[in-house]
Amino acid sequence: MGQAPSCGRSSHDHNFFKAVEGGDLAMVESSLRMDPEILHQSTLYDRLSPLHIAAANGRLEILSRILDRSVHPDLLNRHKQTPLMLAAMHGRIACLQRLLQAGANILMFDSLHGRTCLHYAAYYGHLDCLQAILAAARSTPVADSWGFARFVNVRDGNGATPLHLAAKQGWPNCLHILLGNGALVSAPTGRYSYQGSTPLHLAARGGYLDCVRELLAWGADRKQRDSSGRIPYIVALKRKHRACAALLNPLSAEPLVWPSPLKFMSELKPDAKALLEAALMDANREREKNILKGTTYSLPSPVHWEGEIDNDNASEATDMELCCICFDQICTIEVQDCGHQMCAHCTLALCCHSKPNPSTLCLSAPLCPFCRSSIARLVVAKTKIKEEGDKDSFSKPCKLRKSQNSNSEGSSSFKGLSSAVGSLGKMGSRGSGKIADGCDMMDKP
Length: 445
Fold this sequence. Notes:
mainly alpha; three-stranded antiparallel β-sheet; two-stranded antiparallel sheet; 22 helices; globular; zinc; ANK repeat; EC 2.3.2.27; transferase
């Protein structure tokens, strides 16, 4: 993998380009002492500069030496591709980070497909490169001029966003990162693939089950049609991806969707978000089992599913404080600043049941069910464990525990939410604080 030089220049130039490609630092430095201007040469056909070749082949030390000689980081090859694009294309994260440090422009488009470095990282599934580019976009002039959300949803020459490319190639982890950074889940393409295709159409066409699952969890519309009038379900059926088709069937149960109030909550810490995501995927996995019940298809675990807690933690978990909404899961999420705790399943259920305000058509902020204060920040709860003959001591948060009623349909926390809501006013304090009298946990539709 990498970019091999193809030049019809002198043997000295050819040997220099081969040394850059192979990472022969001694040979590179020797050639530069003989002819410093060789840095400004390029291969004859592809017009690859030494910087392009070093970036594509992951030669960090040579790339740094070239940049230290004041070579511009945004040199263009025959297809107007920058070294940054080639580093993203080949997954050379160290070289990509060094180019970003040198001021490489993340908002340049090539002439081959009209793509940016973000498109290439998404297309080839290089998650670390994708994250590095997104991090750079938040702190560069791009965020000020274009806006971060516009950059995440930038279209190539055929009208495809990075999310479309990741879905077409089957990279669920890249989808996850892009969606978490504001990618539009149901945006249609232009001329790319079949016109009007959404990321869900593209994932269905490839039979990428984890991608379908990820997109559905972020609210992708199963009934949205492409320019030919096809919904993703029909696309999956035509390609004989029957497990995908079962989940995409508009007549099957709706998946649980990552709640809008929590999607981009600035104060949602990564560890708390991971617990909530695991709870959502757990609930959807139970739904998927019911959809495929009686069929010959079985679904693998979601890519973000952490599984059950270890046996050592399992015995420990029985002594931990249970959520006093469902009395089934351990309290893993804490609302700040009020300090009330509940399990991740019930936290999601509260937010999933929030109804839009009809006068403003906006989702109201979710409310803590115990004190009715707005939920603006969620963190991992510091759970207590009772030790024999000793006072309470704090333990590290454990992984999310699977529902004890593993044979029941769906997640028990979501299933029993309505009954839990009705009885909240009657519950006493169970370590989570006194519940406000007569409070209604859900906004009326």
